[in-house]
């Protein structure tokens, strides 16, 4: 394995973790689906230009294109919409990350059944350990005891939908379209995602945007760094590794997000949070070694 291949998971975790920071900057100035529709449209325009300039190959037939489109609806449409709506409803980003952080356990439970992958005892131990570490990190920073159960559920429900969306998308792509050109594939993934999200946004939101400097920065970051950079890395990782190994990386997202928030916003980390990060990293190592 080359040095670059070894570093790809690290690059992916760092880039993916900045998504919550981008949401924090941008959501005060646009409703969640309006924000995402604008993001999707810019990604499609950018990746279409890249694909045409580089003469990238498009899907060979309608069946292949349909499978790629389904992965887009699951990985981008359901996942991103769920996370953004939860944060917009007042759920702390850390708790949203914790809910989505359950993905490796869900993926591990389903990978053997749907993909025929063998999940070893060591991997199960790593997955459970990783989830425990994530719980320590987020639990040390977030408190929702003052919220009524129905209010908390209203906030958490979209994040739960995001959890199932990204789990299903990872498994579906690994099963039906593990290899496709990432340049044209991004266009095929985001087109149906844009269409569905726009229809829902037109019927549920005002579609108003305040074009502030913070919003433009957040939008540019999410388009270039997240939708192009991180998603391309996710595609490469899904292509080259098992579903469980790829999913285990998501355990590192909440700790990495906490570190970025500490560096950018001077958010202090408790001893318990630092200990949880160590546990999560150890769990990921076990899961990937298995």
What does this structure look like?
- The chain has helices spanning 3-17, 19-26, 32-53, 62-88, 93-100, 103-115, 121-139, 149-176, 182-204, 213-240, 243-248, 253-265, 271-289.
- With 290 residues, the protein is an all-alpha fold.
- It has one domain (3-289).
- The radius of gyration is 18 Å and the shape is globular.
- It starts with a helix and ends with a helix.
- The mean pLDDT is 81.
SSE blueprint and pairings:
Blueprint (H helix, E strand, L loop, with lengths): L2 H15 L1 H8 L5 H22 L8 H27 L4 H8 L2 H13 L5 H19 L9 H28 L5 H23 L8 H28 L2 H6 L4 H13 L5 H19 L1
Could you list some keywords that capture this structure?
mainly alpha; 79% helix; globular; 13 helices; single chain; 290 residues; 0% strand
Overall number of strands: 0
- N- to C-terminal separation? 17 Å
> What is the makeup of the main sheet?
none
* Helix-residue proportion: over 70%
Integer-rounded radius of gyration:
18 Å
Total discrete domains: 1
Q: Uncertain regions: pLDDT < 50 for 5+ in a row?
A: none
How much is the average pLDDT? 81
Element pattern in H and E? HHHHHHHHHHHHH
Shape, please?
globular
- The secondary-structure class comes to mainly alpha
- Residue share in β-strands: under 5%
Count of DSSP-assigned helices: 13
Write a brief caption for the model.
This protein has about 290 residues and is mainly α.
């Amino acid at each position: 394995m080359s040095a670059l291949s070894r570093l790809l998971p690290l690059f992916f975790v760092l880039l993916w973790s900045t998504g919550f920071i981008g949401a924090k900057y941008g959501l005060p100035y646009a409703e969640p689906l309006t924000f995402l529709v604008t993001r999707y449209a810019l990604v499609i325009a950018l990746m279409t230009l890249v694909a045409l300039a580089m003469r990238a190959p498009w899907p060979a037939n309608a069946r292949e294109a349909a499978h790629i489109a389904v992965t887009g609806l699951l990985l981008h449409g359901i996942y991103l919409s769920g996370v953004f709506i939860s944060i917009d409803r007042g759920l702390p980003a850390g708790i949203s990350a914790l809910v989505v952080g359950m993905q490796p356990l869900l993926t591990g439970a389903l990978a053997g059944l749907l993909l025929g992958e063998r999940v070893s005892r060591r991997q199960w131990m790593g997955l459970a350990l990783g989830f425990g570490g994530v719980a320590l990190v987020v639990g040390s920073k977030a408190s929702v005891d003052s919220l009524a159960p129905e209010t908390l559920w209203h906030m958490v429900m979209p994040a739960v939908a995001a959890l199932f969306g990204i789990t299903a998308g990872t498994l579906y792509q690994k099963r039906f379209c593990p290899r496709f050109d990432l340049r044209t594939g991004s266009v095929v993934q985001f087109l149906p995602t844009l269409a569905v999200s726009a229809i829902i946004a037109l019927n549920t939101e005002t579609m108003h945007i305040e074009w502030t400097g913070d919003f433009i920065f957040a939008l540019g970051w999410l388009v270039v760094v997240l939708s192009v950079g991180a998603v391309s890395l996710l595609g490469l990782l899904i292509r080259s590794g098992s579903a469980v190994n790829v999913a285990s990386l998501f355990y590192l997202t909440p700790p990495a997000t906490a570190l970025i928030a500490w560096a950018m916003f001077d958010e202090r980390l408790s001893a318990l949070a630092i200990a949880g990060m160590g546990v999560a990293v150890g769990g990921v190592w076990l899961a990937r070694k298995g």
